[in-house]
Amino acid sequence: MTYIWLLFQALAGLVAFGLFVLALKKWPIVGIGSAAFYTVIAWEVPYPPPLVSLGGFSVYYLDVLSIAFLIVAFSQFARLVIRLRAAVWYWLGFGSLLLVSLALGLAANSTGTALNEFRPFLYPYAMMTWAMALYWDYLLVKHLLLRFSVFFGWLLTIVATYHIALHGLGSTSGFVDSGTGLEQTTRPLVSGQALAILLCAIVCLWFWREYGGRGLLFSSVVFFGVVLVSQQRTVWAVAFSALFVVFLSAQARLKFRILFSGLVAVALLFVVTGTQLMPDVLGHLFTAAEDSGTYDGRMRSWLNLLSQSVQSGPLTVAFGEPMGSGFGRYESAGRWVLFAPHNWYLTLYLRVGILGLAVFLCFLFVVFSRLLRQRSNMAAIAIATALIVYGWSYSWIWYISMFLGWTFVQASTKVGLREEQVLGSRARRSMSKPRNSRVISDRTFQP
Question: What CA–CA distances, in Å, run from 346 to 122, 306, 343?
Fold first, then answer.
């Protein structure tokens, strides 16, 4: 009787999963809504509980969502190939090397340990693949990307305001119990949330430039302000790097606007922080900018991990260690730590070696160089730059992968765009046309 009941539960689970995949394929908001929910709770609940735990093996909602992402994406594989051309093989090769590392890890280490290390690679890979396979016509961009960015940005603004009301502006060295038994930063947002609202600000600003609308401009200004008070120095560096690359790539008129807006923003910052309304904000920001202890500790741990890898031999350097091998090393003050290094590129190297890292960097080089050659979408260039720089101090986070997937779509070749128009002739078509002759996402958006 017990086996019959277990079989019934398994069949019910498969049916539910199939319906979930169909819903995700028909309504992309299912995936985007999941990303928004997990981003909002990232401060209070950084590690949500599993859906099911059996015999020491846990299944999480993000496991189910990631597998569904991949199924939906590969059901539209032709679109991926047409859109990315040669870059798609780098992307698939990178994913294959991750799977090889997982298989070796399952054979050499415990199943739970190998899967736990594999998840931070699986989640962003799956969502990015899904996002790149979406049919980003003008209607989808307007109703999914733009409206989501506005709603998502204001939601994170409310979250930051709530944390400021509870803990003040906090500091880079302050920690508090998040309510789940884990210590969390006293800053208004964790780094992933600050990065997410920065990307929302970039999208809103770009749409305002193309379409107009004071609401979009106001939203982007508020979102940039939240990024500033979040005291996430990595996200500050990300924002300045994105602005610098856009400035170099822009035409003279846009360069003048960037310079003028920057001067106005700096002047407003000093005026506002100099009033009695916010007397100590500027002091908090300068203190956060000057505190380099965290970065110094990370650099020491990165060098220790690299040294351990090289000492393990040429095979480890070339192919990395299998999933589940751990990241134990000494950090600052002789402290032994086990968590993954806050560096996406180093983490990739440790698990897929020089070979896997090279394949991944080739993919980035192909799509980013296409974006720079086309220069038709500065928002895409800014987002790509932001994620590349962010990866130096943190691992890529799955819930911002939708932005990056949309960005990489902008690197489609002209031939791929024409073929995709034919492929997507049965898909949704635009109901209206932007007032500006420039296309804000990619040239397939022309109705």
Answer: 17, 8, 5
